Amino acid sequence: MDLDAIFVGGGVIGLSGAWRAARRGLSVAVVDPAPGHGASWVAAGMLAPVTEAHFGEERLVSLLVAGADRWASFAAELEETTGLDIGYQRCGTAVVALDTSDRAVIDDLLELQWSFHLDSVRLSGSQCRDLVPALAPGVRGGAHVPGDHQVDNRRLIAALLRACALSGVDLVASEVVEVTTRVDRSATGVRLIDRSVIEASTIVLCAGSETGLLGGVPPDVLPPVRPVKGVVLRLRGSASVPLVTRTVRGLVHGRSCYLVPRADGSLVLGATSEERGFDRTVQAGAVHALLDDARALIPGIDELELVECMAGLRPGSPDNGPFVGWTEVPGLAAATGHFRNGILLAPLTADALVAMVVGNPVPDPLSGFGLGRVIRGGSGHAASTSARPISTRTPER
Ligand code: GLY
């Protein structure tokens, strides 16, 4: 019997969509060789509609705010369903500047945030240190953003996997080679690397930066996503004497970095933003730059143990907004291009995907983020459009 939906890609978007769909009573499979171990694993888990607001992106900012509003109930429902703590912390974010130019950039961003009616408060250097005592004495000032929170992305993945299993999602540990279609070009299912086929009424492509590489359909029907590499470090600290207790985003001589504290005292330190294609190597220079900038803001990180350096590939899109909607192939949908906001937008995207699978329109505010908004053949297309297996494997170090 055909399934209602197959999710191609088991990152936070695919797992969230599959869980919500199965909970709605739909029959669902997720295909991924290593679910949850792509960009969603490397991520820091910031839920940051305000500190991810950029000039010229007002429509996207409204979406990010709606995404953040959806998080508390999503987290509560996931924790209740699974009995797992996902580390959703309403901790707020401190934004800090190391020098006067950095301070000026943050002041400009504050003006932008206020013009969007976002909640942020300008702080002097000493007010920053009151908020985050571990900051270096030289920090010039910054802002407090009370509504930018975080979730422990790895706990989130574990909970989503359990929620999927509990609700009957079929987790297929394999790679998709191509979409299968009828003579009328509508999608019927997916062919796996072992040549077996799984059929469903709806196929949802949610393989992050690799979504544009799928075979079986013309390349120009696929969303034009590209990989944007982010190197992220993890540092082990003390749970009883944490170095910081809220997210710190800093500008250090024009370079940005962030430090996200976890309940166990560890810190997630990120991130580079590099256009290098499908390259997951961690270069020494990236690690050096991140550590150098972070210790300029918070000297105490020198005492922490460096336990992990990884690179993830964000799914970038031409306008930094996600693609959530139908492709031109009947029965074939996509949910990708979430770029820096995949974790934040996962609950909202999951709701939209369920709506689509049951035959309803994509709800607001995602209705304006369909695939039709992009001019075909633009620079946002993935570097290669040749057919190849989709994999969201953990980068190996
Ligand atoms: N959302 C943070 C990042 O993409 O680095």
Account of the 3D structure:
- The protein is of the alpha/beta class and 397 residues long.
- The protein has two domains: 1-89 and 149-225 and 318-397, FAD/NAD(P)-binding domain (3-Layer(bba) Sandwich); 93-146 and 227-316, 2-Layer Sandwich (D-Amino Acid Oxidase, Chain A, domain 2).
- 27% of the residues lie in helices and 25% in strands.
- It is built from nine helices and 18 strands.
- It has helices at 12-23, 39-42, 58-69, 71-82, 100-115, 125-131, 153-166, 284-297, 342-357; strands at residues 3-8, 28-31, 46-47, 93-97, 121-124, 141-145, 149-150, 170-172, 176-181, 187-192, 197-205, 226-236, 247-252, 255-261, 267-270, 305-316, 323-326, 332-336.
- The strands form three sheets. Strands 1, 2, 8, 9, 10, 11, 17 and 18 form an eight-stranded mixed beta sheet that branches. An eight-stranded mixed beta sheet has the order 5-6-4-13-14-15-12-16, sandwiched between helices. It has a two-stranded antiparallel sheet with strand order 3-7.
- Helix 3 (58-69) crosses helix 9 and helix 4 crosses helix 7.
- The radius of gyration is 21 Å and the shape is elongated.
- The protein binds glycine.
- The site of glycine has 7 residues, from loops.
- Glycine (GLY) binds at residues 44, 46, 230, 270-271, 314, 340.
Cα distance spanning the termini: 41 Å
Q: Which stretches are low in confidence, meaning pLDDT under 50 for 5 or more residues running?
A: 375-397
The backbone outline, from C-alpha atoms, is elongated
- Give a count of the beta strands, DSSP E runs of length 2 or more: 18
Strand and helix order: EHEHEHHEHEHEEHEEEEEEEEHEEEH
Amount of helix: 25-40%
Please name the fourth-level CATH homologous superfamily of the largest domain.
Answer: FAD/NAD(P)-binding domain
